[in-house]
Amino acid sequence: MIVPMAPKVGPATERELRPHYGYFFICSFHSILRACAAMSSLVASFIAIAIFAGRVANAQPAVSLLIDNGYPSSGTLNIASVLTQVSAKKGQTFHFGSTYDTYDADQSWFDSIFQTFFKHVVSENGCKWDATEPTQGTSDLTECLATQSFATTYGNSFRGHNTFWHSQTPSWLPGSFSASTLVNTIIPQHVQAEIQGMGSSVTSWDVVNEVVGDGVSNGMTALQCVQNKGDWPTVTSDGSGTPLVTDLSFIYQAFKTAYTYAGANTRLAINDYNTGGQDAKTACVIAVLESIQANTSIPYDRLAIGFQSHLTASTGGFYTKSALASTFSTLAALGVNAMITEMDIEVNTDNTANLRYQAAIWGDYLDACLYASNCNEFINWDPRDDLSWRGTSAAATLFDSNGNPKPAAYEVAARLQNYAAGNAEPCATSSGTSVCTITGTGSTTTGSSSSTSSTKSSSSGSGGPTGCASAEWGQCGGMGWTGCTSCASGTTCQEQNAYYSQCLPS
Ligand code: XIL
């Protein structure tokens, strides 16, 4: 069944940020999960085609990337040890990962990529309400636990998504329950069963997902922000507009229950899209968070805001790095964590300029998280293009449909290496070269981001980023070289002169 969601009437920038999130297939999880996932993907493709047909391709700005400046842009990527170094530098585990469900195609690719690139798992669909309580009162964590077990097998951490959402609900919801039954029985029972059942090692839970409206304006109260959403349970299921629940008790109850049953270190998040900057929707999410704290007494240092970050690689399709940094620091002042929870970036056409632009935006979002004291989870939604909920043609992920790394994957690896090496934060490269140019041994900027050039000396065979390998014919050493000092298999690093070593066939 295709269920049209409430029309989005937000400001232009918000619509731009998330252009085709209008329809979902609502499925019974156990019966037709595979078919449903495939159909959803087809619909996503269809909608994408419908929306972008006739749209003129934007000329993307030329961007300056770390992969142009000494970091590898080809060859095998293995960032597992770099992620360990990032965590050491941050003084807290940095969870970098992607989505997985056991029905995903190409299991052997998943087995490999969750050892070498992603080290953190989120179940794409397996922990949602339709999957975990298909029959009222009967908790079924089969798929959710299976994805967690996959994570454990490869030494990955696991995050929970989600315990409450108006979408992907079981067929018995919304039903005709009273507000009191929903708030005092159905929600707490579900949240308890899921959070208790998944255990205390879950890094964070999206306790409520997408509760804030798209048409919000500055100054709205937390309740107004949620009522603006126009979805169950603040409207009846038939869309008549008569509220079922007239306050935020359903959110408070979900959080109180989560706090009671989650592990002592598990962060409890409110997760939403089109958020991250100094805009009305982000202000609303913060207002709801403050209201949760005031009404539940959960300490701020157990709370988090998840920024989904479903983006497009075009002007207005993403937040600037400085806007993100400012929001993250507002949250840090409260003790609240900021998390990038569902990052993907649609490109208009899968060409070199767009893929480089995509790489720059990805790098900037990652930097915003890396260099913030309160951001330690970064999840990429769907690990490769052919599995993306945004459709294959959106080319919205880090790996192409053959599972090969795209420029964004190399740039992400480079930003992680750059951070782990203790280098200064690069300027906002998605702004384009006119305001941001990265140079060889660090970064310089003429833009507004706080960045200084940094230097690190290295000679052939030492001092470069670890866990990476330069491709055949690529540079692998030399005075001032800061890139990989290992070579792809079948090649050896050979010094040509003091300034240049190259990966040559063995
Ligand atoms: C998407 C999944 O990726 C799809 O497979 C599914 O058909 C629909 O949901 N925001 C969320 C995620 O919080 O749960 C959504 O995931 C993407 C948008």
From TrEMBL:
<feature type="region of interest" description="Disordered">
    <location>
        <begin position="442"/>
        <end position="464"/>
    </location>
</feature>
<dbReference type="GO" id="GO:0045493">
    <property type="term" value="P:xylan catabolic process"/>
</dbReference>
<keyword id="KW-0732">Signal</keyword>
<keyword id="KW-0624">Polysaccharide degradation</keyword>
<keyword id="KW-0378">Hydrolase</keyword>
<dbReference type="InterPro" id="IPR017853">
    <property type="entry name" value="GH"/>
</dbReference>
<dbReference type="GO" id="GO:0005576">
    <property type="term" value="C:extracellular region"/>
</dbReference>
<dbReference type="InterPro" id="IPR044846">
    <property type="entry name" value="GH10"/>
</dbReference>
<dbReference type="GO" id="GO:0031176">
    <property type="term" value="F:endo-1,4-beta-xylanase activity"/>
</dbReference>
<keyword id="KW-0119">Carbohydrate metabolism</keyword>
<dbReference type="InterPro" id="IPR000254">
    <property type="entry name" value="CBD"/>
</dbReference>
<dbReference type="Pfam" id="PF00734">
    <property type="entry name" value="CBM_1"/>
</dbReference>
<dbReference type="GO" id="GO:0030248">
    <property type="term" value="F:cellulose binding"/>
</dbReference>
<comment type="similarity">
    <text>Belongs to the glycosyl hydrolase 10 (cellulase F) family.</text>
</comment>
<dbReference type="Pfam" id="PF00331">
    <property type="entry name" value="Glyco_hydro_10"/>
</dbReference>
<keyword id="KW-0858">Xylan degradation</keyword>
<feature type="domain" description="GH10">
    <location>
        <begin position="80"/>
        <end position="415"/>
    </location>
</feature>
<protein>
    <recommendedName>
        <fullName>Beta-xylanase</fullName>
        <ecNumber>3.2.1.8</ecNumber>
    </recommendedName>
</protein>
<keyword id="KW-0326">Glycosidase</keyword>
<feature type="compositionally biased region" description="Low complexity">
    <location>
        <begin position="442"/>
        <end position="460"/>
    </location>
</feature>
<dbReference type="InterPro" id="IPR035971">
    <property type="entry name" value="CBD_sf"/>
</dbReference>
<feature type="domain" description="CBM1">
    <location>
        <begin position="468"/>
        <end position="504"/>
    </location>
</feature>
<dbReference type="InterPro" id="IPR001000">
    <property type="entry name" value="GH10_dom"/>
</dbReference>
